C-alpha cells in the first residue's frame, strides 16, 4: 500500500519543532510520534511547560537580586554623577517601550494567524461532517424505501397477479433485486459514528479557540496599557503610578512566561502531528472503518481502487434490472390487470428516486471531496496554526524582555525622583531669598507677620544712622517701631526690596552675601537685641 503523497508537504518549522527533545518527567527520552493518549507523551509536553516555569523562577530570582543590590548599594551621589543614571533610566524606558510595541505587533499577527488556521480546521471538519451526514442520510432513505415501500407494492401485486404464475415469478425476481440492493447498502461503512466525532471535535475546537483568541487579545491590550502607563509615570515622575505599573509588570511577566510554555507545548505537539498526520488518522479509525477506505480518502490517488466501486456497480445493475421488469409489466400486465397500474407506477417512481440517490451517493463517496477537506485542515493547522503559535512564542519572549527592562528602569527612576525631592526639601523655607518661601508667604498672609524683612530692617538702621548725628542719638524709637510695623505689612510682597523708607526718599542700601548669611544664622531675639543696641 503506497503512502507517498505529493499534495501535502509539512513546512520546515514543523520538522524543527518535531526534533525538539521529548523527555518525560523522569528525564527519560521518549518517542516523538504523536500519541496524545500515551502518558509519557503527555509528560513530554508538560515538561516543556515546566521548562518555562523554571525560566520564570530564574527570571524572578535575577530581578530580586538586582533590586536587592540596587537598594543595598545605593549611595548619595554628587550632582554631576546623576546625569548618567538619568540617561540610563531614559534609554531603558525607551528600549522597553520599543520592545513592548514590537511584541504587541507580533502578538496581534500571531493571534490572527492562529485563529485563521483553527477556523480553517473547523470549517473543513464541518464540511466533512456534512458530507458524511449526506451519505448516511441517502443510505438510510434508500434502505427505508426498499424495505417498506417496495415490499408493500410487491405484496399487493402478488395478490393481483395470483392467477398468472409468470407475473408472480417476475415479482419474486424483483424482490431478490431489492434484497441485493439492501445488502450492498449495508456493506457500506457506518458513517454515523465518525460523523458524531467530527462534529464534537469541531464544536469543542471552536469553543476553545474563541476563548484562546479573546485571552490573548486581552493580554496584548494589557501589555500596551502597562507600557503607556509606565511611560506616563516616568514623564510625570509619579511615584505611585510607577509603583502600580511595577506590580502589574510583575503580573504580566508571569503571564508571559505562562503563555510561552503553553504555546511552545502546543506548537511541539501539533508539529508532531503535522509531520506524520496519516499515521495518526489510521490509528484512530482502525476500529471504526476499514483501513482500505481510510487510505483511499487520505491519499485519493488515481492508482488506488475505489473500495465502493463493486457495491455501487451491483446497486446500479439491480436498479436497471428492476426497471426493465417494471417496464415489461406495464406493457403486458396492465391491459389484463388494470388495478395493478397504480402499484406498478409507484414502484417505478421509487426506482427512479433510488437511482437519483445512487448518483448522489456516488458523488459523495468519491475521495476528492473528503480529501480536499482533509488537506485544507492540514494546511490550516500546520501552516497558519503552527506559524501563529511561533509568532505568539516570539511575542512572549519580547514581552518578557520588555518588562524586565521596565522593572529594572522603574526602581532607578524612583530613586532619581526621590533624590530630587530630597534636594528640593533641603532648601530653607524661612530663607527670604528662596522663591518658594515668597510663594508660601503670598499664599499664607497670616504667616507674613512672622517673617522679618532683612532688607527693610537693615534699611531702617541705615537711614537712622545716616540722618541723625551722634550727639542726638537719644531720640525716640517711635519711628523705628512705626517702620517695623509698616515693614511687616510689606513682608509678603515679592518686590519688598524696593519699598521706600517711611518718610525718606533714599533707596535701600546694598547688602553683601556675608550679611545675608549673618541674618539667616540669627534668631528673632538676637535681631531684636541687635536693633535695640543700635538705637542706644
Describe the fold and architecture.
The protein has 536 residues and is an all-alpha fold. It contains 16 helices and no strands. It has helices at residues 12-18, 39-72, 82-160, 165-186, 191-236, 239-275, 277-285, 291-299, 309-332, 341-365, 367-425, 435-443, 454-467, 478-489, 513-521, 524-535. Helix 2 (39-72) packs antiparallel against helix 6 (239-275) and helix 7 (277-285) runs antiparallel to helix 8 (291-299). The longest helix has 79 residues, at 82-160.
Task: Give a quick precis of the structure.
76% of the residues lie in helices and 0% in strands. It is an all-alpha fold and 536 residues long. The protein has one domain.
